[in-house]
Every structure is written in C-alpha cells, then in structure tokens.
Amino acid sequence: MSERTTAARFEIAYRACLSPEGHLLGENPRASADPALLQRMYRMMVRARIFDAKAVNLQRTGKLGTYPSCLGQEATHVGVGAAMRAEDVLFTVYREIGTKFWRGVDMYRVLLYWGGDERGTLYEHSPQDFPFCVPIGSQMPQAAGAAMAMKIRGEQRCVLAFIGDGGTSQGAFYEAINFAGARELPLVCVIVNNRWAISVPVERQTAAQTLAQKAVAAGIPAVQVDGNDALIVHQVTSEALERARRGEGPTVIEALTYRLADHTTSDDATRYRSAEQVQAAWAVEPLLRLRRFMEQRGVWDEQAEQALKRECAEEVEAAVRQYLATPRQSTDAMFDYLLAELPPALHSQRDEARRYAAQRG
Amino acid sequence: MAKMTMVEAINMAHAWEMEHDQSVVVLGEDVGINGGVFRATVGLQQRFGSARVQDTPLAEGLIAGTAIGLAAQGIKPVAEIQFMGFIYPALDQIASHMARLRNRTRGRLTCPLVLRMPHGGGIHAPEHHSESLEALLCHHPGLRVVCPSSPARAYGLLLAAIRDPDPVIFLEPVRLYRFMRQEVADDGQALPIDSCFVLREGSDLTIVTWGAMTVETLKAAEQLSGEGISCEIIDVASLAPIDFDTILDSVVKTGRLLIVHEAARTCAVGAEIAATVSEHALYDLLAPIRRVTGYDTIMPLYRLEYDYIPSLARIVDGIRATLAE
Prior knowledge:
The complex is a heterodimer.
Chain A: E1 13-15, H1 35-60, H2 74-83, E2 89-91, H3 97-102, H4 107-114, H5 139-152, E3 159-164, H6 171-183, E4 187-193, E5 196-197, E6 200-201, H7 202-205, E7 222-226, H8 230-245, E8 251-256, H9 275-282, H10 286-296, H11 302-324, H12 333-336, H13 347-360
Parallel strand pairs in A: 1-7, 2-3, 3-4, 4-8, 7-8
Antiparallel strand pairs in A: 5-6
Helix pairs in contact in A: 1-2, 1-10, 1-11, 2-8, 4-11, 5-6
Chain B: E1 2-4, H1 6-20, E2 24-28, H2 44-48, E3 53-55, H3 60-72, E4 76-80, H4 88-98, H5 101-104, E5 114-119, H6 134-138, E6 144-146, H7 151-163, E7 168-173, E8 182-184, E9 197-200, E10 205-209, H8 213-225, E11 231-235, E12 238-240, H9 244-254, E13 257-264, H10 269-281, E14 290-294, H11 305-308, H12 312-324
Parallel strand pairs in B: 2-3, 2-4, 4-5, 5-7, 6-7, 10-11, 10-13, 13-14
Antiparallel strand pairs in B: 1-8, 6-12, 9-11
Helix pairs in contact in B: 1-7, 3-4, 8-12, 9-10
C-alpha cells in the first residue's frame, strides 16, 4: 500500500483573450463574433467613464457627496452585467457603476445616491437588485440567501455578487462562499481585484498568490481573469452563470484590474502609490483595447466614437440637470420607510421634524 | 503651546505615548503610510516603524480581536475602526470577549486597549459613515466608553485611555476633528477618565451633553444668556461608566435637566441619565426632564442629516420648555 503524501492539490487557471493592443490571444470568446454585443459593451463602458468623470467633477464643485470613482474597472463591471440575465439578482459593493447601468439603473439614480438621497436606490428596471453595500463584505451572506431562495423554488435564476480585494479579508466572504459550496447554490462571486484597499495593497492584505484560490477551501471552482478585458469577463461570467443555472453550484471569479483613481474623492492616492505604477496601469486600461478590437473587426470607427461621446455627454448633462433640480426629500422620508406602518410612538417625532423643517424653510 | 485641531491633538497623544511607552502599538485600516483616513495617525509609521504602526486587512472583527490578543500579551494596542458605522463585525469580539475577559478569568487575563473611531455625522459623508452608536457599547459592562469634545480633552483623555488597565472605546466626534484650534500642551498629562467636565456654570438649568453636541449646546446657552437665562453645561465625556455625582450635584443646584445627544432617543445614554437622575433627585426637580436627541430613525443620507442632528433651534426650544414648567 502506497503511503499518502498529498492531501489535495489545486491550480488556478488564468484567462485572458484580448491583448492591450486589441488582438485576440488565442481564446475565441463568444462576444467576439457578436458585433452588436461588442458595441453595446463598449458603449456602456464609455458611458460609465464619462459619467464617472462628471461625478468626480460634481463632487469637486460641492454638488455631490463623497464619490468612489470606477475609473479603470469598466470592463469588469460591464462584462459581468452583459453576462447576466434580467431575472438574475445583483449584489454590488459601491463602485460597479457599469453593472448598474447595464441593469438599467440610470445616471440620475446613481447621482441621487451619492448626493445623499435614498431615492438613488430605486431601481426601476432591476427591482430585485440590492443597493450599494458600503460596509465591505456583508453583501455576501445576503447573496447566498438570495441564491438559496432560487434553489428552494427550483428557479433557473442566479445571483451575481461582487466583492473587492479588501472585502475578501472579511469573515462574511468566507462564510458565504463556504455555504454556497456546501449547498451548491446558484451564486457567482466576482472578486474585483483592483489591487488597492484604500492605501493597503493586496499583497499586504493576504499572503495568498491569488484571491481566486480562496474559493478552493470552500470547494468551489475558481478562475482568475484579466479584468480589463471585457470579452473574457463576459465569457467566464457567462460560463459560470450557465453552470449555476444547470444546478452545478457556485463559482468564484477573480478579475484583475486596477483602480486608476483615488479610492474616493476624499482620498489622495499619491500618498501611498507611485506615479509609475499608475502610469503602467493606464497602458493596459480596458476601453482602448476593446475599441481597437472593434476597429480591427470593422464594427467601429472614429465617427461612431465621436457620436457615442457626444451622446454620452448629453445624457450625463441631462442626468445632472435632473439631479440638481430634484428637491430634497421632506423630513417625513426619515420615518416613512422604517416599518410598513409608522408606529404611533413615533408620530410625535415625525411631527417635531416637520415643525423644525418648516421653521428652517 | 501650539494651537491645534482635535485630530492633531489625537495624533500628538499617540506620539507622546509611543515615545514614552515602547509597548504601545497602533493598528487599523490605512493607519500606516496613509496616516488614517482622517490623518489621526499621520507620521506615526515613519517615526515609530512599521512593526509598531500596522495596517490591518480590511476586517473590523480582526482589528478588535487582534487587539484583545495583543493586550493580553502585554502590548498596548491603540486600534482604529475607520468609521463607527463599520463597528458591527467587531461587536462579537467586543461584547463576547473584550468586555468580559477580566471577569471570566477572575482577573487572570485582561485586555487594556483602546479602540478609537470617528463618531456621529455632519460632514456629508456616505451611508454608514455618520452613526452615533455609543449606546451599543455602553450597554456592555466591562468597557469604558469615552467621547472628548475639544482638542485638549481629546489629548488628555486619549492618554488616560491608553494608560487605563481596561478596554476603552474612544469616540471621536467627526465634525469636531477640524472644527476649532486650541492650545494644547504636549506634556503627557492625562485627564481623569471617569469625570464629567463642566463647560459652563449656571444656575437655571443643567444641560447634559457630549461629543459634537457640546458645540450647539454652548451656542444655545450663549444665545439665551442675553435673556438672563443661566445654563450649566456638563460634557459627560465618559459615557460608561458615568460620573453621576457631578450631574446630580448640578441638578440639585438648578432643579432642571435637559439632555442633548445626537444618537437616536430610544434606549440611548440619555435615557440612562434621565432614569438615574429620577432615581436620585426626583424631589429636587422643578420640571420634567427633557431630551433633545436624534430621532428614532435610521441616520439619513446627508441631504437630511441636519434635520436629524439636533439643531440650535431645537436645543433653544428645549431649554425654554424646561424652564417654562
């Protein structure tokens, strides 16, 4: 009888299909043969980027609260959105503007949320999607719960949950993927590894070679992808969602990308990272390579580019106008959604808030 | 003496104690090269090295739990939770272990540590960045909960907190971080950690408050002094345990009590103060005790935050109502 010397082995695949120059790297993802999908993804990425720049600008001029830029992460956010079905449910952290846009959340709502107004969480087109999850990591067990509901009811729906590199240090992340693995829940978790948890680089966050391999301990298939490559993000997420839909359980995808902006508008990233690193990351940013690919395929040109930018700028301006023209909620809004019905004990507090709001005018 | 903000005074207290006590270490998210998101720990890693000033992974339960282990081993951790709204994952460590370690080991193991965090709203911050959750902590015997209201008190109370033999939760009112500059002597002198501070003496009524609400309360007293109304203002400062002697002496003198705090009203520290004053000084009261507090709602996003935080007008009306009865 041979002596056992290894208890387990693992390997994490790395997948990428689009080079920074916009050439296919061997793998032929399904989106590459679908010009309409390519254009739609690119359009959404440009939309996110133009919106994002405006949002930062609004904050700088005192018209928006603290805002976390998504600059540089558009391919991951949009690629995931494109892979989801409308009936799936999305859990995000707080930076995934491109996914929200794909799910039909309009710019106006995103502005409202970061503008300090809870009505920014009203998602007309994706009413089951959860709002942004600022506390980092706590969305994950909720996502597992939503996936469990789908499994209990035998539905062909899935949950897609984002988490950041920093978020994978939270206990809630492990609790959720462990449970998802044990129950084969229809959950796909996308770790957006943008390398920085505010000032802490991922290598100070964990000694693990990859974040994807954290899934190995939960018994879940895991893969690392180039998160600046919308095609591979779309491809791998689609495969994972299909697997989940077939009842084969969860997948963890680690998307390698880079936070090109400060953590939020309250942050100053020059305090903790070098200009050289940021410059190197700009060289592999996600928009240009998809545009080059589409141009090489003859499905995009300068004229289309200019038209898109004009269109996005107009849409952003309209959303900003609507946002700035939106009166703040009345103080009743603090009370209206606490419980299905406001308990009598709180009526006097609601009235007091009204009275002082009226005084303030 | 240098004039400085509260956040600078907090930084200076860290530096003094790290200089004079080699066992003091600082940990938390972004406390190292970034110096904390509010810059409370700025320069400490450069000065004292990365062994004594460590960035942690992004996990509040880890921060609180690690602090307990460090402290039981004789290191003195001064740990930062980035915003009080993020304390929930740490509550298991705080409530199940930090508050109980001395008691459950009959004094064999203790965890003298400081857990610092920004407290309250008013700076147009995002969701979960503006909470006033002191009641959650004060409800757990075995902890001290401290909340300074000026740069000098932040300096002296933080030193006291680090030197205290028990775990101290140190709440830093976020809108006071850079609200005013005050001369603070860097003399290593701690302030008493179990005493109220009388911020203004008066004879007509006692106002008990803490943290950032001291500012609006002092303004209200100043405004009404023109009408001959004399308010005594007490900064509770140590929310657990509370120095009731100072509060009761004042209430016996003035016969009236108004409590002002930013936290939601129900089951808050103000309720505890009202109950204790009722127990010990009911017959000295000339009017019912009143409270001006945050509402029993979720802390709203920032467009409504100043409708939630007690305003000058609400405090002034609270004073008048207490005096009218």
